[in-house]
Amino acid sequence: MKQTHYFTVNFTGFTTAASEEQSYLRLIAGEHAFYTDKRHFKDPSLFDRLRLGQPLHIGTCRLKDGSYWIHWLSDGHILLEPSRQPLSIKKLLRPVGLVFFVCLIILACAPWLDIFLLLCFITMLVNPFGIFSFCSCNFSLRLRVLNAKMQRTKQGDISFCQRLEILPATSERHPPSANNEIALPKEFALEEGVILNSYYQIWIATRVRPYFIKEGACFQLATRHSFFSARLTWLSNALNNRCRPPFLADGDWVIAARRHGYDDLQALYNVSDGSVY
């Protein structure tokens, strides 16, 4: 499938973002940026056993912004498998057969048909995301293809992986400078600098209706002429997980647009991985 890609990279270590449980990771190889979350794997402790300098084979899915999300990875000895995998056909036959049998019984009892349909409708209203998540995980062709490639990796077959080389560290690159000639409203300014002392935070707004949950990264931005606190926030919404959350880590070089006197950023370009938020 065009959406799935498989690579072999020389592992130089993950960068950790300011995130919940410090589980959000980034790996840059060549012109490619890869992201993943330890919480999505069966045994996250295996990440600590990956050896630097060794080839790392990864199964990924390409995201809308051109980056890649890692679903599984292996160094040839250790395999990190996703915690949620599509059900096999054999495992699906039993629940499907049970549902079919229950439907036959209900249809045979006509007076109970309306109640059954009402219960189904209420279930869809109460937990629509749970139903969507179950179907997308267990019936996704993309995940089945990724899982099939992972099984081949278990058998030592990595012929389908494309070899990539790691770029020099961020400090060795020459990031573009903020263009001071860009026309911005007077209340905004462009700031260019390095992220320091970043940490993750959640905000819950209960005084407004509808209430919302907002999460983000707070950090200090060190520029050539100043040193100030800033934060980048986004709404916490599980339905938007098709797009990865912003990735900000200590040492990242960024160009940001902010309103004078406020620490909330209006826009941010992360030079380290080419992301724009």
TrEMBL record:
Keywords: Lipoprotein, Membrane, Transmembrane, Transmembrane helix. The chain crosses the membrane at residues 92-110, 116-141. It comes from the Bacteria. This is Lipoprotein.
